Amino acid sequence: MLVSKGSWVNFHCSLHSGIIQLWDYQMCAYLEKFEEHDGPVRGICFHNQQPIFVSGGDDYKIKVWNYKQRRCLFTLLGHLDYIRSTYFHHKYPWILSASDDQTIRIWNWQSRNCICILTGHNHYVMCAQFHPTDDLVVSASLDQTVRVWDISGLRKKNTAPTTSPIDDHHRHPGSADLFGQADAVVRHVLEGHDRGVNWAYFHPTLPLIVSGADDRLVKLWRMNEAKAWEVDTCRGHYNNVSCVLFHPRQEYILSNSEDKSIRVWDMTRRTCLQTFRRDQDRFWVLAAHPTLNLFAAGHDSGMMIFKLERERPAYAVHGNLIYYVKERFMRRLDLTTSKDHAVIQLRGGSRPNVYSMSYNPAENAILLTTRTTNTDNSSYELYLIPTETNSSQPDTPDCKKSSGLTAIWVARNRFAVLDRNQSLVIKNLKNEVSKKIQVPNCDEIFFAGTGMLLLREPESLTLFDVQQKRVLAEVKVSKVRYVVWANDMSHVALLAKRSITLCNRKLQILATLQEITHVKSGAWDDSGVFIYTTSNHIKYALTSGDNGIIRTLDIPIYITKVKNHQVFCLDREVKARVLNIDPTEYRFKLALINRNYDEVLMMVRNSKLVGQAIIAYLQRKGYPEVALHFVKDEKTRFGLALECGNIEIALEAAKALDDRICWDKLGDMALLQGNHQVVEMCYQRTKNFAKLTFLYTITGNSDKLGKMLRIAGIRKDVSSHYCTALLLGDVTERVRLLKNGGQISLAYWTAVNHGLTEEAEQLRELMDEEQLQNLKAVPEAKLLTPPPPLFLLDANWPLLTVTRSVFEGPQLKNKPTLAGGTGLITDEIDVDPTGGWGDDDLQLDEDNQAEKIMDEDAAAGEGGGWDIDDDIELPPDVEVHASDAGNEGFFVAPTKGVPVPQQWTNSSKLPVDHVYAGSFESAARLLNDQIGIVNIEPFRQLFLSAYTRSRATYTALPILPSLHLYPMRNWKEQKTTAPAVGMTIADLIQRLQILNLVYYARLRLLPTQNGCYQLTTMGKFGEALDKFRSLLLNIPLLVVDNKPDITKAQELITLCREYILGLQMELFRKDLPKEKIEDQKRSCELAAYFTHCSLDAVHLILTLRTAMNLTFKLKNYKSASSFARRLLELGPKADMAQQTRKLLQVCEKNPVDEHAMEYDEHNPFLVCAKSYKPIYRGKPEIKCPFCGASYMPQFSGVLCTVCTVAEVGKDTMGLRISPLQFR
């Protein structure tokens, strides 16, 4: 049974094992189990108000449970056989139970008594239910009847009377007896089933009953006060019907059966609308949610929750306008004015089940897709929205309707339709087909920008260019249901049932999120954060993978737009809502990720970011100093301060906590930082006298070491006392300690060797002669004492200067600093009576000698100091002139200006300007960002040549070194400078065609070298390859100032790429062996590929002639004849044309290829520059970002073989050779 209880949305399922399980179906979480029944549990029901439920089982027991207390409250006994169903009354404290003992019982669960027994069935009673409003009960039995019982007498008997029996008899003369009536009587007996009836159910509002039986029929009955009769029969199940019920809000009947199916019937037409089947499990029971469009069905292996119809509204967003369908109207919501009105009325009689919507703002047109259970019947409608609309009486414009699964706009006057045959059909505004594309395995399409579509396959999503009919990108994501693009189309969210995948424009995965509940909807806000909803939360997701909860929801919503702190959405009833959210948390995280520290600091000061989640996030991301701003708990604050090395805040927290462990940790951290003043305080608080002694020794503080000697004596710590005396070189104290410790011999020997005559004589008297003979003074004995400190270390140990974090500055403002001066922090020793040096903590002797030591220290610190009197009285007429205060009259040298090459690098993003400035490293970085250059070595000579011509040298005076002059290309401008470039696009074109005899004749010169074209014509392929590649590498070092020259440079790159690729294939072909037939086939294939390179006509004739001859020798006459025809179309010389025609005549006699080649001239293709294999249109490919050479996807990341400098597949900005490209 389904129920919504407070913050829980639960269902119970009763099992054949006797266990009752409580589930939260929204979270798919198993909450609790109840085990007291001794056999299978067949009936269960929630109370509509109390936190209780009732169950009945095969142990003949009815149990009432409290699911909050998780226990059984009581058990009702009375039935003599299995209990089939149990139900609560909607109003009275009654329980209705049906049993195999052929009786129906009504129980008062407050008094825990059986108040009525309904008898009359002569077989098992399979179910019994109360009417939703009337005093009626319906029951179904295996005796092939359905009975309707009147229990109004029971109600009157068990409720307080408000009128006399005579008055009630006059008001209802046909229903009551003046002298009383039975508690329950049979009003109707419904006979019509041929076998046992398993279920009967009342309609919630109409006088109807539906029943299901073992005769495989579902029957509909109508009744009134006098009689009941059969209305109609629904046929379709081919096994026993287990359960039937009415839809709570629509005219549907639901039934399930042992034929492993659930069927939905139209109550008016009595036809089956939908059928759901399971392969292995029979269905037994159905339940409907009281308020939501949810149903539960129990089967052999468990329980399933399902919906009958889609609740997600169809909507489209354009700017601040939201178009959506509600009932029979297309409505428009203006977010700026909050006006919501109907635009048009949709055609069609019944309520539309609009699946999706696509809006065209250019033509003000809308596409509505309607889907049915049978996808073959899905269709779309094209509406043109009128410019002027009447919201009170909207027009019903004509629409163009056709079949199709999905329809989406791809251009201003074109839209794409996915039809049932998995074909992509492009149509115009007249709904006429203009293009048809086969897209196998595609079951859904999504919008991806102008001319682009996302094609969904079972396990992937593909970005498809409709115009070029090729795949641009692909991502492996399964079962994507919705696609949400950012406003600038830079990011996309792919929504599956319980997961979200965030990608960039090229479908590269940025983050993947998993949810335990259904993902409902989402939208991108202006800052690039994805806001989405689940069944019960509004959440956010950043492209870095960080996510969190913004707020909880009472009901599911569907986000249409996010604007600042407002979420515009539609609910299940298609009502427009506006929800306020707090974006502080995700904006804070976004600012941290983007390193926008100014915004972070502003949010730290002004926002109320609290909670362990944000603190843990900051720690995880390496920002403990930021987390300090949000922490109030001193223990957490102490840990964060230690993590970021902030001794001052850690000291404050340690004082507040006053815990030994905290002082130990603080002491260790302070020691690492060389802050021995804090170390001293920590050792004092923990009474670690051994470490204090060592600290005073290494800092050279002899006075404090003397105090430690005296305190060790008070503490009667002989070992520490002796060690301290040893460090101080106090022989007298050592002798005294040895004497008091009973070490007379050792004390005497120490006194004798160190010249303490008086003490030695006193000790001599305590010793016998034998001991004295063994202890003789050592003449060369010396007093060994530690060297005296050169100076007292008052300040902390010096450390490297470290830049303080931007977040630590605001924390330390107005914070007290550590006291300077000598050693200890004054407040901690001399003032605080409860500190580490107090007599209560030390537990010293009764004379309070340690306190006297402190008093001595305090008195020693009270000196006169500097006699500075701040109260000096000065005449009021004394003035200080500003010139006297600020003008000292010294010479200020002029600052050095910025060198001209540095100006070039500062003001330009063109790589050539950085080369001319001598900044080769920054030029290499720019080339990497712009065209993916990773191998800079081929540019070495070009860089050096360009740098040498960037400046001129002249001599000003004989005694001065040479000076440099920098030629400028923009010398007329005053603001910025740029170097003069010694090479133009015309120079490169001239190098391409250097053997232009007309050009040289005009200049009366003789050509001194061969150009790229001439070398290719002469067959010197190696030299021509080097010339083309050198020409290609010179193109990024150009500077042009107009768009035509930019276009020429791009065309020059394309030309060089085609020639380099073709020449490389030809050289590779010439090196192949020719003995085997496979080698000969490969040679022919390479020659064929060469003919598809974009070459000059002269060279194309030569390539076609080579391919023709090779294929003819291989007896591939069909291919040879094709090459011959192409050759003749180019108009070769007469002798070559004559020979070609003869060969063509021979080939046409037998136009067959004897050997199959990997070559299809009718299917457009590109040649992979690595493997020299064809990449046919529509197949995935990647390109070199510099030269544009094509490669198969497996070669991503390799060095391009054409240009030899760029990384294949790298994401770059593109070639930049003009300042116009940066505007």
From TrEMBL:
GO terms for cellular component: COPI vesicle coat; Golgi membrane. It comes from the Eukaryota. PROSITE patterns: WD_REPEATS_1 (PS00678), WD_REPEATS_2 (PS50082), WD_REPEATS_REGION (PS50294). It is found in: Cytoplasm; Golgi apparatus membrane; Cytoplasmic vesicle, COPI-coated vesicle membrane. It holds the Pfam family COPI_C. WD repeats lie at residues 34-75, 76-108, 118-159, 190-231, 234-275. Residues 342-571 form the COPA/B second beta-propeller domain. It is a peripheral membrane protein. Residues 824-1223 form the Coatomer alpha subunit C-terminal domain. Gene3D superfamilies: 1.25.40.470, YVTN repeat-like/Quinoprotein amine dehydrogenase (2.130.10.10). Keywords: Cytoplasm, ER-Golgi transport, Golgi apparatus, Membrane, Protein transport, Repeat, Transport, WD repeat. GO terms for biological process: endoplasmic reticulum to Golgi vesicle-mediated transport; intra-Golgi vesicle-mediated transport; intracellular protein transport; retrograde vesicle-mediated transport, Golgi to endoplasmic reticulum. Residues 612-751 form the COPA/B TPR domain. GO terms for molecular function: structural molecule activity. Oligomeric complex that consists of at least the alpha, beta, beta', gamma, delta, epsilon and zeta subunits. Interacts with SCYL1. Interacts with JAGN1. Interacts with TMEM41B. Interacts with SVEP1. Probably interacts with PEX11A. Xenin stimulates exocrine pancreatic secretion. It inhibits pentagastrin-stimulated secretion of acid, to induce exocrine pancreatic secretion and to affect small and large intestinal motility. In the gut, xenin interacts with the neurotensin receptor. The coatomer is a cytosolic protein complex that binds to dilysine motifs and reversibly associates with Golgi non-clathrin-coated vesicles, which further mediate biosynthetic protein transport from the ER, via the Golgi up to the trans Golgi network. Coatomer complex is required for budding from Golgi membranes, and is essential for the retrograde Golgi-to-ER transport of dilysine-tagged proteins. This is Coatomer subunit alpha. The lineage of its organism: Eukaryota, Metazoa, Ecdysozoa, Arthropoda, Hexapoda.
